[in-house]
Amino acid sequence: MGNPIEQGGVNVSIENNIARIEFHHPLSNSLPGKVLQELANTITKVGENDTVTVIILKSAGERAFCAGASFDELISIDDLETGKVFFSGFANVINAARKCPKLIIGRVQGKAVGGGVGMASAVDYCMATKFASVKLSELAVGIGPFVVGPAVERKIGMSAMSQLTIDATEWQTAQWAKDKGLYTEIFDSVDEMDSAIEKLANTLSKSNPEAMQMLKKVFWEGTEHWDNLLLERAAMSGKLVLSDFTRNAINKFKKK
Asked: What gap in Å lies between CA 161 and CA 153, rounded to an integer?
């Protein structure tokens, strides 16, 4: 297998003005820093491509959408700067999606944890299957969802976000996530979800790019300070991950 931190990546395809960005990692699509950086850069680059009108953000495989941070990488963090850089990876992906001038449709085929919930919150329109349960497990490993928090709160409100954060070991269902506004629709199967995504993406691919760009700005109004905010939040997680409490909690979590 090699070093899990070195694995994973991002693929892009563009057809009929629709860009599909897919990230993948063998460990339930967890995201090491290398993949996060590639994903943020890809979203930014595709956003600048004039042939692209709409973006679909998805992950590989049939089961987990995204297992969040890479535990192997979390365990290896041994100084504040490294911790800050690692958690900045999620900040950069959220900020790239926020600033991308194209509307982004999220495709969530399975469970989303931590940073995965943050990514589902950072797209503009998110569809999921009934298997796409959500969990913010950060407190269970001695940290908190500081970086993804603003994106999740913007989407589902402080009450639902704090419920996910405090009850960190429990899954909430896809229906719960839809009721709270994270998912726009949930489907019984991946095929049904993909049909609906294709239909919407095709409609948007023929819509006015300028109008959609202006709408995107309106949707994200009031988040202009997030470049700094999310980096401050990354430093909070970076500090906590160095504590003995958190190291022990992560090691216990990994053995489960």
From this structure: 6
Q: How far apart are alpha carbons 211 and 128 in whole angstroms?
A: 26
Which amino acid does the sequence have at 255?
K
Which pair of tokens denotes residue 250? 């992560």
Strand 185-187 and strand 9-15: the pairing is: unpaired
Q: In this structure, what are the phi and psi dihedrals at residue 171, rounded to the nearest 5 degrees?
A: -80, 145
What does the block give as tokens for 177?
């996530």
Contact assessment for residue 120 and residue 151, using Cβ atoms and an 8 Å cutoff? no
The pLDDT value given to residue 3: 65
pLDDT tens digits along 55-88: 999 999 998 999 998 888 888 898 999 999 999 9
The Cα–Cα gap between 231 and 235 comes to 6
Q: Is the pTM of this model over 0.70?
A: yes
Cα–Cα distance, 34 to 79 (Å, whole number): 18
Those residues whose C-beta lies under 8 Å from the C-beta of residue 205, and which sit 6 or more positions away, are 16, 17, 18, 53, 54
Read out DSSP for 224-235? Answer: TTHHHHHHHHHH
Phi/psi-derived region of residue 146, left when phi > 0, alpha when psi is between -120 and 50, beta in every other case: alpha
Residue with tokens 């996060």: 36
Cα-based distances in Å from 112 to 29, 134, 188: 10, 5, 17
The first and second tokens of residue 110, run together, are: 């399975």
Tell how many helices (H) and how many strands (E) occur in the chain: 10, 8
- Domain at 4-255, CATH from 3.40.430.10, 3.30.70.120, 3.20.20.150, 3.90.226.10: 3.90.226.10
Residues of the chain under the 50 pLDDT cut: 1
Q: Check residue 5 and give its pLDDT.
A: 62
